[in-house]
Amino acid sequence: MKKINMIILGITGTVVLVFLVVYGINNLDIFNRSRDNKKITSNETTEKKGKTVVIEDKEDENKKDEIVSNNIRIYYGDEDEKLSEKSFIVPEGTDKKEELIFNKIKNSSDKLKNVKLIWVKTEDKICNLNLSKDFKTALQGTIGESIIIYSIVNSLTELDFIEKVQFYIEDEKGFETGHNTYYEPIEKNTDILNK
User: Fold this and answer.
1) CA 8 → CA 4, 18, 19, 22, distances in Å?
2) Over the stretch 130-186, which tens digit does the pLDDT of each residue have?
3) In angstroms, rounded to a whole number, what is the distance separating the alpha carbons of residues 103 and 152?
4) Which of 85, 124, 150, 173 has the smallest number of CB atoms closer than 10 Å to its CB?
5) How many angstroms separate the most distant Cα atoms in the chain?
C-alpha cells in the first residue's frame, strides 16, 4: 500500500511540474502583480492627452506599456466637415486589424450601416478594401463624401504597414461618384484633420 501511495504521489508531482512548465510560472496570478501591486482590470480606462484609452484584460504595468504601443487613431467626421480623432487599443495578437478599423468606422456612421466588407487584403503597403455597392450609394449626393473617404483612408494608414487605400466595389477596382473618381490608391489627407 505504501508503494502505491508513493507512485501516486510521484505521478501527481510530475503532472504538477509538467503543468507549471507548459503553462508557465509567469502566467500564474500570484506572480503577475505590477510594481505598485495594483491590477489593471478588464475595460479599465486611463486618460492619455485628453483621449480615453481602454486597457483590456492586462494585469501588470509591463503589459499596460505594451498595449499603449498598440494605440490606433480612428478618424471620424465632425460638424465642421473635418476629421477628429479618437484612440482605441488594438488587442495584442489581433489579426485583421484593417477589418477591425473599418468596422469601427462603419458602426459609427448611419450612412455606412448597410455597407458590407467583402474582403480586405494588404500588399505592398496598399490596403485593398472591397466593399458592397451600398458604399457607393452611401456616398451619392453626400456633401461629406470626402469626410467618409478620408475617415477610412486616414484611419487605415495609421497602421505602419499601410500607406494607401485602394477601394473596390464588389470586386471592381475603383468607382465614381457625382463629385470624384476613386480608381487609384488614396493616401492620407492631413489637410482635412481638425487641429
Assistant:
1) 6, 15, 16, 21
2) 999 999 988 876 568 888 999 999 999 999 999 999 999 999 999 998 788 999 999
3) 10
4) 124
5) 88
Lowest mean pLDDT among 44-58, 75-89, 172-186: 44-58
Average pLDDT over residues 119-131: 97
**Residue owning grid cell 478620408:** 150
Pairing, β 83-89 against β 186-187: unpaired
DSSP symbols for 41-94: PTTEEEEETTEEEEE-S--SHHHHHHHHTTEEEEEEE-TTSSEEEEEEE--TT-
Give me the residue label for grid cell 497602421.
Answer: 159
Which one, of 97, 94, 92, 106, lies nearest residue 55 by Cα?
A: 92
Q: For the whole model, what pTM was predicted?
A: 0.64
Task: Find the helix or strand (DSSP H, E) in which 168 lies.
Answer: strand 164-169
Asked whether residue 38 carries a pLDDT value surpassing 60, the answer given is no
Q: Which helix (DSSP H) or strand (DSSP E) does residue 138 occupy?
A: helix 134-139
Closest CA to 195 of 85, 108, 105, 88: 85
The pairing of strands 71-77 and 51-55 is: unpaired
